[in-house]
Design goal:
The chain has helices at about 55-75, 80-100, 115-125, 135-145, 215-220, 225, 260-275; strands at about 105-110, 150-155, 160-170, 175, 180-185, 190, 205, 230-235, 240-245, 255, 280-285, 295, 305. By secondary structure, it is of the alpha/beta class. Among the domains are: about 80-170, Ubiquitin-like (UB roll); about 175-305, Rossmann fold (3-Layer(aba) Sandwich), CATH 3.40.50. A ten-stranded mixed β-sheet has the order 6-5-4-7-8-9-10-11-12-13, with no helix packed on it. Strands 1-3-2 form a three-stranded mixed β-sheet, covered by helices on one side. A hairpin with a 3-residue loop joins β2 (about 150-155) and β3 (about 160-170). It is elongated, with a radius of gyration of 50 Å. It is found in: Cell inner membrane; Membrane. This is Cell division protein FtsQ. Its main location: membrane. Keywords: Cell cycle, Cell division, Cell inner membrane, Cell membrane, Membrane, Transmembrane, Transmembrane helix.
């Protein structure tokens, strides 16, 4: 549908150059608000930018880190941080002791030969000390370092009790050295103190004998009946054993080999069961050669019961 020019109506408001009449202003005074002031812009200072290469930046960072490290080390070596930590810890422990957490009772179990004063000294705790200040691991190490103590356990029973449980070393033999006797346990450790009450223990003699005590008693235990008759064991050249039965001086001496020692020990036990050599005035039996048995009696200096070969020389 086409529009004719007569169909287009232009109002006064739409005519060019002609504006709408202003509205009538009331006689009542109008209040005109001033436009809000813009916030004052902050003054920005110019930023200093250093035109540095990556290598120069890396060097600067390294220098700063070096300065901090040197300063920290100097402060540490001055001892001030350590003193501060110690003083703080001491003050805290003293406050706990004042609150009732202090050593009031020390009990010990398992003690037979270890002197009480040695245990208390090694424990490092006195009555009235802060119980939380006891270093359990360090105290245990000191107690286990005592010659007569094999193992130890420490319990802190709050608020004020410490219980010490120890396992003492058990004497299994007397070691003769320099004309004196020392108690030793299966591990070969010397146990200080008097030997009263342990005079009937087997005697071990010779250099290196205590260190081989465990090995010796493991061997003897394979023949319990014969082991109960062992009175002394002599370590020869720190290589092998001579065993004395029934009596240290006049008993039967059995010379065991360096190798196949257990076989020779079983052989001796069998001979005692079948022939009772110790009851036939036999003073020595040499078991060092597997296919030869050399005996020595009070009547005959040397008797070879296996062959006519000369007796083996002492090794």
């Amino acid at each position: 549908m086409r529009l004719n020019p007569s169909d287009i109506v232009i109002t006064a408001d739409d005519r060019p150059g002609i504006h709408r009449a202003p509205r009538q202003i009331s006689a009542k005074r109008q209040t005109v608000e001033a436009p809000a002031a813009r916030p004052k812009a902050k003054r920005r200072w110019p930023r200093l930018r250093l035109d540095m290469s990556p290598l120069q930046r890396l060097t600067g960072y390294g220098l700063a880190a070096t300065i901090l490290l040197i300063g920290g080390l100097a402060l540490w070596h001055s001892g001030k941080p350590q003193r501060l930590v110690r003083e703080t810890a001491t003050a805290f422990l003293n406050s706990t002791a004042e609150a009732g957490f202090q050593v009031a009772d020390i009990t010990v179990s398992g003690r037979r030969r270890t002197p009480t004063d040695q245990l208390v000294s090694a424990l490092g705790a006195q009555y009235g000390d802060p119980i939380l200040g006891l270093d359990i691991a360090a105290a245990r190490a000191r107690i286990e370092a005592l010659p007569s103590v094999r193992a130890a356990a420490i319990e802190r029973r709050l608020p004020g009790a410490i219980h010490l449980s120890i396992v003492e070393r058990q004497p299994v033999a007397l070691w003769q050295t320099d004309s004196r006797f020392v108690l030793v346990d299966r591990d070969g450790h010397n146990i200080p103190g008097a030997i009263e009450g342990f005079e009937d223990l087997p005697l071990v003699v010779g250099d290196g004998a205590p260190a081989r005590t465990d090995e010796l008693f493991a061997l003897l235990a394979t023949e319990p009946e014969l082991a109960s008759r062992v009175k002394a064991a002599i370590r020869v050249s720190n290589r092998r054993w001579n065993i004395k039965l029934d009596d240290v001086e006049k008993g039967l001496e059995a010379r065991l080999p360096e190798l196949d020692t257990q076989v020779a020990w079983h052989r001796l036990a069998e001979l005692e069961k079948t022939r009772a050599l110790s009851g036939k005035q036999i003073t020595m039996i040499d078991l060092r050669v597997p296919d030869r048995l050399v005996l020595k009696s009070e009547r005959e200096p040397v008797v070879n019961t296996a062959s006519a070969a000369p007796p083996a020389r002492e090794r």
